[in-house]
Amino acid sequence: MRNKKAQVATATTWIVATLIIVVILTVFFYLANVLAKKSLLIEIKQEIISRGFSEEYNLFNVKTASAYLQTPENKKSVIDTWIKVQKIPLNKYIKS
Amino acid sequence: MEKFISIYWFLILILTAGGISAMVFAFYSHPYDVREAEAFILGEKVADCISNNGRINEWIEINKENKDDFLKKCHLNFNTEFKEQGQYYVKAEIFEINSLNDLNLDTDNLKVFFESGNPAIITHCKPQEEKEIEKLSKCSENVFYSLDSENNQYLIKILSIVKKTEKNTK
After folding, report:
1. Which helix (DSSP H) or strand (DSSP E) does residue A69 occupy?
2. Size of interface A-B (CB pairs under 8 A)
3. Cβ–Cβ below 8 Å for B144 and A72
4. pLDDT per residue over B70-123, tens digit each?
5. Fewer CB near the last or first residue (10 Å), C or N of chain B?
6. What sign does the CA torsion over B100, B104, B106, B109 have?
7. CB-CB neighbours of B28 under 10 Å
8. pLDDT tens sequence across A56-82
């Protein structure tokens, strides 16, 4: 009788342990999914990708600056207004 | 009893290893959405094709109908590995600017117009401006300034769109 009780107690321990493992795995699996969707790693990689079209390296602004430098002085007023409205940091490109 | 425990341990081992593998797979199988960058790069390629060193390229004939194939001229290929084609769209408009009123980029000042790809995906751009929707195409619109050989001034507007939702979203 004592042996049987001991066996039941041991089995209960294993069942509880199994359940804990399953619960932990499920929680971690869910977290892995959440992190995959919005993880820091992905955001950092997206940031690196996005840097290519940030204002600093923007090819369109470089092209605008290049054309602006060749524009005759008497024709600059219209394009000056457009550059001001678009907030293109022209000085940054012309200096470099 | 010991035999039962060894089977049990084996099952737990499989369960844990399987769980960890599933987690790793779930984490790394999530795709990176690079369509925004792709659309921007496509726009840059078209910009390079239209204007270089501040001057509009010679192959573009202002005030004339440019019948030549835009894609061929710009060395672009819109074919993809997807069954459903029409994953890209590009539109380039060249507006002449002489006064402040011309900065509105009205069709009256439109001198040259190029278009290629699937125009059906243009409708995806408007909803994307209001709220980012993963399943819709990504759009990139850029305007830059250029001159022609006679110092006439132009604003060039380029709209580039990339669909490819199958590969970039889950």
Report:
1. helix A59-70
2. 111
3. no
4. 788 888 888 887 777 789 999 999 999 888 877 877 777 888 888 888 888 888
5. N
6. positive
7. 10
8. 668 888 899 999 999 999 888 889 999
C-alpha Rg value of chain A to the nearest Å: 32
Determine the Cα–Cα distance for residues A6 and A1; give it in Å rounded to an integer: 9
Tell how far CA A62 is from the center of its chain.
Answer: 26
Global confidence as pTM: 0.74
Residues of B in contact with A71 (CB under 8 A): 147, 151, 153
Which sign does the torsion angle of CA A27, B23, B135, A40 carry? positive
Q: What does the alpha-carbon distance between residue B31 and residue B28 come to, in Å, rounded to a whole number?
A: 8
Asked if the C-beta of B160 comes within 8 angstroms of chain A's C-beta atoms, the answer is: no
CB B88 within 8 A of CB B163: yes
B165, B82 Cβ separation under 8 angstroms? no
Candidates A66, A79, A86, A94: best to mutate against B (most CBs of B within 10 A) is A66
Q: Where are the domains of chain B?
A: 1-30, 33-168
Q: What is the 3-state secondary structure (H, E, C) of chain B?
A: CHHHHHHHHHHHHHHHHHHHHHHHHHHHCCCCCCHHHHHHHHHHHHHHHHEECCEECCCCCCCCCCCCCHHHHCCCCCCCCCCCCCCEEEEEEEEECCCHHHHHCCHHHEEEEEEEECHHHHHHHHHHHHCCCCCCCEEEEEEEEEECCCCCEEEEEEEEEECCHHHHCC
A83 contact residues in B (CB cutoff 8 A): 145
pLDDT for the residue B106: 77
